[in-house]
Amino acid sequence: MSPIEAAATLFGLINVTLVVRRSMWNYPFALMMVSLYAWIFLGEKLYSDALLQLFFVLVNLYGWWNWSRSRADTGEVRVEQLAASARILWLAGCTAAALGWGALMHRYTDAAYPWWDGSIAILSIAAQILQSRRNWESWVLWILVDLAAIPLFAVKGLWLTAGLYLVFLALSVWGLIQWTKAKA
C-alpha cells in the first residue's frame, strides 16, 4: 500500500458516500480520487482502468454541471429512470463495447487481464454516464463493477483498493435503495 493509494481510497470513500446522499460536494473528491487512481493503474499496467480515470475527469465535470441544474424544489438532485427500451440498448452497447475494448487491449497492449479490466472499464463508463444523468440504474452497473473489480484488484495486490471496492459495493447497494426511493 502506497500513500497515493491510501489518499485515493480516502477520497473515494468520501466521494461515493456523497453521491449516495446526492450531494454536489461529491465532485471535488471524485476529481481528486480519479487523478490519483490514473497514476496507480498506469503503474500496474491496468491500462483500461488508467484511461478510465481520464474519462472520469471529463464525465465528473459534466455531472457537476448537470446536477447543479437539476435540483428539485427541495434543493435535492432529482433522480430519473430509463425507459425499458433504453435499458436494453445500454445493455447491448455495454456488451459490444466490452468485447471490442477487451480485444483491442489484448491485441495491442501488454495489459494485465485485458478482458477483465476492459469489461470493468466499459461498465464503469456506462455507470458514470448514467449517474451523471441522475439515472438510478447507474447503481445496478456500479454493483456489477464492484463485484468484478474486487477480485481483480486482489489478484494485482492492490489490497487497499480491493477493500475500497468492497465498501463501494455496500455503498452501491445503499445508493440503489436510496435512489430507487427518490426516482421521479
From TrEMBL:
Signal peptide: none
UniProt GO molecular function: nicotinamide riboside transmembrane transporter activity
Keywords in alphabetical order: Cell membrane, Membrane, Transmembrane, Transmembrane helix, Transport
Membrane topology summary: Multi-pass membrane protein
Transmembrane stretches, start-end: 25-43, 50-67, 87-104, 162-180
Localisation: Cell membrane
Gene Ontology terms: cellular component: plasma membrane
Family according to the record: Belongs to the nicotinamide ribonucleoside (NR) uptake permease (TC 4.B.1) family.
The protein's role, per its UniProt record: Required for nicotinamide riboside transport across the inner membrane.
Protein name in UniProt: Nicotinamide riboside transporter PnuC
